[in-house]
């Protein structure tokens, strides 16, 4: 059951290394705080889709500069 748990890192770190580490550890998404509502909604929708289909990686939703 835990293998299907979607994990989204919500952090203040914008370093690519931290994002790569999160992905390598199995994170579904990576959000840089403070997230915009639209980005947050997109990643939640993506997690729901992954939970239903178990396809795709759903990764790397990042705050626009």
Please give a structural write-up:
With 65 residues, this protein is of the alpha+beta class. The chain contains two helices and two strands. It has helices at residues 16-24, 37-53, and strands spanning 8-11, 29-32. The chain is 40% helix and 12% strand. A two-stranded parallel sheet has the order 1-2. The longest helix is centred in the C-terminal third of the chain and has 17 residues, at 37-53.
SSE layout and pairing:
Blueprint: E1 8-11, H1 16-24, E2 29-32, H2 37-53
Parallel strand pairs: 1-2
Distinctive features:
two-stranded parallel ribbon, alpha+beta, 2 strands, about 60 residues
Brief account:
The protein has helices at 16-24, 37-53, and strands at 8-11, 29-32. It is an alpha+beta fold and 65 residues long.
Quaternary assembly: single chain
Strand order of the largest sheet: 1-2
Could you tell me how far the N terminus lies from the C terminus, measured between alpha carbons in angstroms?
36 Å
**Cα shape:** flat
Radius of gyration: 11 Å
What percent of residues adopt helix (DSSP H or I)?
40-55%
Mean pLDDT: 77
Which spans of ≥5 residues are poorly predicted at pLDDT below 50? 54-65
- Counting DSSP E segments of at least 2 residues, the number of strands comes to 2
Strand content: 5-15%
Q: What's the main sheet like? A: 2 strands, parallel
Q: Supply the number of helical segments.
A: 2
Please write the string of helix (H) and strand (E) elements.
EHEH
Q: Helix/strand-derived class?
A: alpha+beta
